[in-house]
Each structure stands twice: as C-alpha cells, then as structure tokens.
Amino acid sequence: MRSSCRYIPETRKVFHLSCLRFTARIFVQHTPHPQTGQQHMSTGSTTTSTDTYDYVIVGGGLEGLAIAWGLTSRGEKSVLVIERDQLCGGMTGKSSGVVRAHYGTPSVAKMGWKGTKFFHDAPEILGDDCGFRNCGYMVAVGEENVGNLEATIAMQQGLGVDVEFIGGDKARELWPGLHVDDFAKIAYEPLGGRGDAPMLGMAFSVVARQQGAKIRQGTTVTGFTRESEADGARVTGVTLGDGSTVGAGQVILATGAWAAQLGETIGLDIPVRAQRAQLMLVDPGEPLPHVPVLSDLVSLQYLAGEPNGDILCGNSDHHDVHWADPDNYPNKADDDFIEWTIGKLMHRLPDMPNPGLTSTYAGCYDTTPDYNPIMGPSGIDGLFLAVGFSGHGFKIAPAVAEFVADLLLDGDSSDPDIPASDFRLSRFAEGDLTRSLHPYIGAGEMR
C-alpha cells in the first residue's frame, strides 16, 4: 500500500529509539494520493429510477474500473459504474503498486504475469504509462524455504514467467548495500517493478467511458432490488441512498473491504474481512539508486524505492492479523510497528548513512480465508462478485478485467491456466480452498 502524505512542521515530534541508529519524524496527517483527488469525472447525466443497464458495477476502485474497461473492450456499452465517493478514493489510493508474478497459486501467478506484460504495453493499450517503473522484483528466502522457492519458481517458469535465480553478488549489484548473508536463495523477475494504482484506475475509467461506460460518483448503493421477496429471487438492480433505483441485467459487486456489508442486505454471506496493514516511508539519508522491489522472506518485510528516493517498508508477517472497520481505523502506524520495522530495515540495509522516518500510514486489505479473490456468480441470479483481492488486486487488475468479462460474456475463462473454479464463492463452504502449492514458512498464503 502506498499514499501521499505531508507534514505539519510545527507538530513534528522526535520518536526516541535508543537501541537503534534512527531518527523518526512522526507522521501526523494523512492526505489522499494526488491522483485520487485531482480528477473528478462528471457523469454527463443524472440517473433516475427508470434507468437500466446491462451491467451495473458497484464500486469505483481499481477492480471495478478494470471490469468496466474489460466489458467495454469486448463491445459492451450498457455499463454503469457507481462509486459512493470519488474514483479510486478508497483503498486503491493506498496500494504499494508492486508489479510481479510471484505467487504460489498457479492461476494467480498467471494473472500476475499477464499484469506484468500489460504494464509494459500500457501506453499503447491505455494511452498512459500508469506510473510504471521497470525496476525489477526480487524475492529472497532462508534455508527453511529453499525447497518451496525452487518449486514455486519451477511452476512459474512453466507458466511462461520470466524469472531466474541470482546469487548474492548480483543482488547487491541490483541493490547496493543490501545485507544478503542470511539469504539462502534469491529469485529475480527482470520485468517486475512498481506502478501507480490510482493512475491505472483513472486510465481504465477514461478508456471505459470512451468506449461507452457511464460513471457516477458521490452515489451510495444501499441495497439491491429483486424480482420478489422470495428467498433466492433474482437481483434486478440496486437501490441508492436517495431511495431511487437503477435496473441491471447483472450487478457486479466490486466494493473491496466493504463487500460483506452489502452482502448482508440480501442475506448473502461474503467471507471478506478488512485486514489493517501498516507501512512506513524512510529517507535513507542519501539518494536511493534505481533498485528492485524486494520481498525479504527472511525478515518478513518488503522494501521498494519511491520516486522521491524514500524506501517504502511493508510487512510480510501476517500471523498477527489486525481486523479493522474500513470506515474507522487508525490511519498511521503504531509505535510498536515502527520500532519493529525499523529494526528489520536496519538489519537488511545496515549502511544507510543517516536514515529518518518520513511518514507512516495504514490501509486495509479485503481478505478472504484463503487470501485469494472471489470472482464469479454469487449464488443469487443477477449478482456477480469480484471482491476479496487480499492485497493482490493491483498487479492482477488487467487480468481480472479479461477474466471477469470472459465469465460474464462467455460463461467461462478463456485461459486454461486460470480456471474459474479457483475463484468460486462456494469453495469456502466446500472446504476446497485455493491455496499456494508450496506456501512459505512465515509468509504463508500472502505469497
């Protein structure tokens, strides 16, 4: 996750960490990502209770906008996106924007690989580079995870992913000053890197509108309309906060961490919970060179270079899960998290000359019990789910657009490596979860 932030200089405080060579300048106010706030798109018309669309997408975050683009790219023009706030104004604005194919679930790895290739071609496809920087992606493990990494890389290579093993010297060449002595095996994706989730979402929205989609912002969906009051009756549209309705051939729920709340209004149990994630930005004390994203599965952290030279520090240890209300949660990192993360960072980059804490922030993943998305029919006719992306949504969004369009228009996935059954809602009730083939000790299903 990632966000823009600013200081209120007169209220800066010193956070004393006597055991660490680190000055912490505590972040005191969060501001939205610039892309989230600078583009407000008019709808061009006012929706009334008589409006009906073939597809109504609830949620104007990255996945909802990707789906709108995917449908309109297939020639569907009767598409409406409804967003309660502003486009990409929820958790999309806090995405860390990592581009990689490194997953232990083959279908998700293939989606990540499709996404990686998409970002390289985004200027031609969308007319926008979406902030993509091809800095590469590294993942490193200790001795206990060597076998899991080797098996995972073999699986990914079988899917066509461009990934290779590298040695410690090469890793230090890619990221100068990196402490690698406790890395037993390192893999590298040369085509990986970083992008910008709000920029990608806005690019999807622009092209989707050019292709016929309509978008409404500042409009809350409070529930669903149905053919009758009977259990299981078909969904025929959505109810808005002002009491009006919009009809739909299919309603597509793409509301991220808020999915379960809307599901409850129709008696549908959607197993998605908001998991709070804390991050921090560190000034290393000197300009950071062009470095790859690093998934450090020894220290259970991920590190990435920011355009301004800061280091983004995220957590890959998800044993101590913090569930949250996505509308009301602490929006900056806890002091204990800061101290813990600084210790891990200093171990991995011990030679930073004068590191300082620039800012911290927090967001929420929309997680499922197996940390993989739900994409498919809800079990109620007329309602389709695209939720629970569990932190993977940015890098797989281009593939999600294709996959969801395939399911809605053709009834099945067009890619045999991405079977629709992997993402069905019923897998949870059936006890047939979509798991990594070789989960890492420590990082587990977040890979």
Automatic annotation (TrEMBL):
- Gene Ontology CC annotations of this record: cytoplasm
Q: Report the residue ranges that make up the FAD dependent oxidoreductase domain in this protein.
A: 54-407
Q: Which InterPro entries match?
A: FAD-dep_OxRdtase, FAD/NAD-bd_sf
User: What superkingdom does the record give?
Assistant: Bacteria
- What PANTHER family does this protein map onto? FAD-DEPENDENT OXIDOREDUCTASE DOMAIN-CONTAINING PROTEIN 1, SARCOSINE DEHYDROGENASE-RELATED
Pfam families in the cross-refs: DAO (PF01266)
UniProt-listed Enzyme Commission number(s): 2.1.1.-
Whether GTP-binding counts among this entry's keywords is no
Supply the alphabetized keyword list.
Answer: Methyltransferase, Oxidoreductase, Transferase
Q: What is this protein called?
A: tRNA 5-methylaminomethyl-2-thiouridine biosynthesis protein
GO biological process terms on file:
methylation
The record ties this protein, via SUPFAM superfamilies, to:
FAD/NAD(P)-binding domain
Q: Does the keyword Ligase apply?
A: no
EC class of the enzyme, as a word: transferase
Q: Cite a single GO MF annotation.
A: methyltransferase activity
Traced from the root, the source organism's taxonomic lineage reads: Bacteria, Bacillati, Actinomycetota, Actinomycetes, Mycobacteriales
